[in-house]
Amino acid sequence: MKKFALYCILFLTTAYGFSQKVSDETISELISKYKKDVRGPYKDIRWFCTDGSIRQPKDPCPEDIGPGVQHARYKDEVVKLAETNQIYLGQILAYTDKKDFWDAENNHSRLKQYQLDKYLRSIDNGWINQKGQFYRGSIQAEDEQAWGIDFYKWLLADDANIEKNFFLIRQSLKDIPHSGDDNLSQTIRSQSKVISDEFLPFMDLRVKIHSLPEISDIDKVKAFKEKYNSKLSTSQKDQIDVLVSNMQKFYKPIDIKSLVAKNALFKNTPIGEKILSYISSHNSETAASYLIPDTSELLVDIRESLPDVKNPMARLQLLDLSLKLEDLIFKTAPQWEPENLQQTLEKICYLGMATTGSGYIELSEWDKINLKAPIENSGDLTLNELTNTLENARSLVEWSASMVKANFQHIVDVYSGFEPKTYGFIDDKIRGSIALQLGESVGRLGDFIAKESALTNKVMDIPNQSSFRGLNPGYAFGELVVVDGNPDNIEVNSNHIYIFQRPPSDLKPVAGIATVSEGNMVSHVQLLARNLGIPNAALSDENLKSLKKYDGTKVFYAVSNKGNIILKPENEMTETEQLLFVKKERNEERIEVPVENILLNETNILNLRNVDASDSGKLCGPKAANLGQLKKMFPEQVVEGLVIPFGIFREHMNQEMPNLGISYWTFLNLMFAKAERLQNEGVAESDIENYQLEQLAILRDAIKSMTLSPEFVSQLENQFKTILGKDLGEIPVFLRSDTNMEDLKDFTGAGLNLTLFNVINKEKILQGIKDVWASPYTERSFKWRQKYLLNPENVFPSILVIPSVDVDYSGVLITKGISNGDENDLTVAFSRGAGGAVDGQSAETYLIYIEGGTRFLAPAREPYYNSLPVTGGTLKKLATFEKPILNQLNINQIRNLANTIRKTLPKETNSDYKGAFDVELGFKDDKLWLFQIRPFVENKKALSSGYLESITPVIDKNKSIPLSKKI
């Protein structure tokens, strides 16, 4: 095999070269070609002998050099694709090195592609092997099985693999042959999809099988065949028969005794004793309400025991047993039909436990969520206690889905570029999990609580509306746009309302937004939405799919102060709702950038130590001014730094633009003057905006190419040496845009302009300064300013230059409880590495009670994080989720910091500001570093809106609800 690999490398080097990536269009064409090819992606069949030699199919390996294995070789194009794009089509396991297949350096891409290939084959009649699946001898099942066992023996020998990749390894067992059971539940979903694609009337049954599968579906499928017998083709009837047969196998009564083989290697271990006790106790037990609790506990026990069981094959047997137990719960959960609140809470608790045991939730997260079943006959719960339980349970469903996405979304995005059918893979994984059954139970609890509290959502006519929850209040009217795929390449319209899978990190102005993955509540996107009164909500995957049919509809959208939601078509709007959108005067409710105190004659680079909050908007923006203030208050927690004030930018803008005969500043002001003239002439706003964007593109490119004055460069070199202790180009730094349009009284401007990470090269720093100066003139920054500022032409950028700290983790502190509205509590969101939480990462989030204790709101689910090497630039490193990010020491430090900021900052700055603060910070070896502080700006209009108040019900949080109440 090594000889063949060497041949491939030489062939590719001479014939193709390494650098030429194959386009998605070309890959799509290859796939279409392979579907029609009787050999699929394979070239020919050979014997591969133990000594590395390759022989013809009729010339087996001689006995004296070992038996060898027979299988296909890949087509040259397939080999090329693996080298150029790291796309591995039609992988043959017996042909693959174990370490290469695990592919740890590339986030296990090859293993995940193998799973994705299995899915595509199941839903698309063999996919690239539509005809090649009959290519005899291309793959030998017994060799694949033997390889799978050998692979897991190697993989499971390493404790770290079990600890860090439990979910992925356990999922892979469903797809990699190793003498385990077939993944029948996925087969059933795939077959139902194939039938509905060919025969549309089957769609309702397919939806039922995908959304809420249960044993009664077998009779429904049989009845369907009988009803449509005359319209079904022979092939379709055969497909339905196979589906029924598989469903009957899947729902066959479980023989608990058969779960463990006689030769089980774990029998004489503590977990083995628990398993035997479980089998003995449930040998004849079939009632789901008794079976599921003990099965769920055993699932967690098995997961916890794996590090103590050292035999890799015993570990493999335990994982296979774990999959059988998950199937048992998946099948029997619909049979557990709670009659009252007590039983509903019990079912949710144990399904949550099973979800944890199956790897969708980390053990540390389960410990923190505090979702316990109430003690029987324990009386009543208050509405507030019940709502907290619902929030925790709903969180488990969301985190389960986000675990699947964190593991597979990247490779799904890659494949979706050339195979659109790939996008159903994530949905299939989620629907094949216990989280599906958990979500159904949580939905029932949500509906019950909504009735008890009168806090109901009214979202078109879609089902499961209790999955919606408001993130910040506001109202909007516009066209509904439902985006089911990657949002990053979507060109948004400021008058539209968007439903996203996840929020794009560089969101331009929109009227309203709702997302399946909210990212985190303190990201720049969320803060902008909260600041500007843009209605913002979270919803489930199922909700998004239900709303797809309304894509393009004009709708009214409102989120109340308590988080209940209205989304309805234009023709159902009340007169009051219509009056909310009567055309306002252009300047009404917009904000003016204060420029009366700006000092543009300061053209010296400043030491961060000599800047404080009083300089904000005068010499520099609030980032530098406030960080300088923090440097005075917390000298050991703030790095040294230097500040390039507004005056230096303004001085450079007086230079003449190349080939135009006017200065940069004059060019800018002429553009705004013409835009105002066009407006007075009645030209359409869209045309004016397009003119301005064209002119700003010219200006932006010119600023990026402008010549920096020799005096400024010399001063920068001197200040680097004096303040930062090293020559320019010898220490990596952050260049942070810091404009006078940020952190105004009613406008945050968070994340609208450029920050450059960890720049070290002298020329890159000098170029970076120009790039940062140009960033306020990007389309995104300009559109936000135009929408909310009265004088967007008076925007001046300063630059904060600080040395990089390669923090272990970083994030945001808000000195207010956002989720509960309590001014005394704290909200923190942290991600691993640098730049955490601000760009919408799925971050670890807590509500920190100022008097002590915390509430865990969300785990981190970001598979990659930024590392800052001393050589400059950023490195993407792979994250795992088995351990929480913040420890108790960190939380105590954050609490103490918040107390100090609240007490000291107003005094130090002679400020009467009484609101909350938004702080960016990080930890390196448990030392806290401060990077930024700004006021936390909320939209007072939204918070005090009479309309929003009118749709917000008054809730009696202390209302007592008996656990015996019917549900």
Automatic annotation (TrEMBL):
Species of provenance: Litoribaculum gwangyangense
Keyword presence, Nucleotide-binding: yes
Pathway per the UniProt entry: Carbohydrate biosynthesis; gluconeogenesis
Name of the protein: Phosphoenolpyruvate synthase
Signal peptide: none
UniProt EC number: 2.7.9.2
Annotated function: Catalyzes the phosphorylation of pyruvate to phosphoenolpyruvate.
SUPFAM superfamilies: Glutathione synthetase ATP-binding domain-like (SSF56059)
Annotated ranges, domain Pyruvate phosphate dikinase AMP/ATP-binding: 619-941
Entry keyword set: ATP-binding, Kinase, Magnesium, Metal-binding, Nucleotide-binding, Transferase
Cofactor(s), by name: Mg(2+)
Catalytic activity: pyruvate + ATP + H2O = phosphoenolpyruvate + AMP + phosphate + 2 H(+)
Alphabetized Pfam families for the sequence: PPDK_N
Matches recorded under InterPro entries: ATP_grasp_subdomain_1, PEP_synth, PPDK_AMP/ATP-bd
Family: Belongs to the PEP-utilizing enzyme family.
